[in-house]
Write a sequence for this structure.
């Protein structure tokens, strides 16, 4: 089945949080300490609260839904970096692992892609995600930082 893309609504907070946590497990599992990852994922109330806050006051989130199940999402907005490299930032683009390579990530990106320059942060060790972003015109700009939540290094990629 082809997923449907739709705007997220407040009623999606719980399902969105569960899907987001599952995407973290699948996306970051190979690159970060398993115990630390599970600790970060264990607090479901925290995930639901974050989704509720972001749905109420953050930039619009776009969901991908297939057979009544959320299978991905994307969100972009103003760049949050202290010294912005671009006016916009891709905050998140995730799909469940079963949808990797199907074009769903591409469809989500195209639906939220801001006009003009855009930056994003991606785990330095995640070559698969970096290859996707390179295919979409992003390149590392040399910025690196430690993502404390996962005790992993991220790099910034920029599309001008």
């Amino acid at each position: 089945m082809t997923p449907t893309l739709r705007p997220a609504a407040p009623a999606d907070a719980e399902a969105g949080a569960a899907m987001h946590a599952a995407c973290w497990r699948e996306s970051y599992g190979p690159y970060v300490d398993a115990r630390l990852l599970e600790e970060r994922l264990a607090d479901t109330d925290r995930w639901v609260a974050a989704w509720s806050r972001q749905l109420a006051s953050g930039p619009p989130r776009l969901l991908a839904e297939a057979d009544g199940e959320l299978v991905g999402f994307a969100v972009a907005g103003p760049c949050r970096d202290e010294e912005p490299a671009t006016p916009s930032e891709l905050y998140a683009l995730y799909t469940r692992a079963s949808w990797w390579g199907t074009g769903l990530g591409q469809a989500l990106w195209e639906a939220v892609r801001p006009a003009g320059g855009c930056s994003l942060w991606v785990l330095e060790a995640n070559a698969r995600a970096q290859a996707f972003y390179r295919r979409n015109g992003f390149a590392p700009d040399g910025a690196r930082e430690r993502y404390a939540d996962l005790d992993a290094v991220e790099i910034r990629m920029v599309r001008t």
Remarks:
- The beta strands are 4-7, 62-66, 69-78, 88-95, 118-123, 139-147, 152-159.
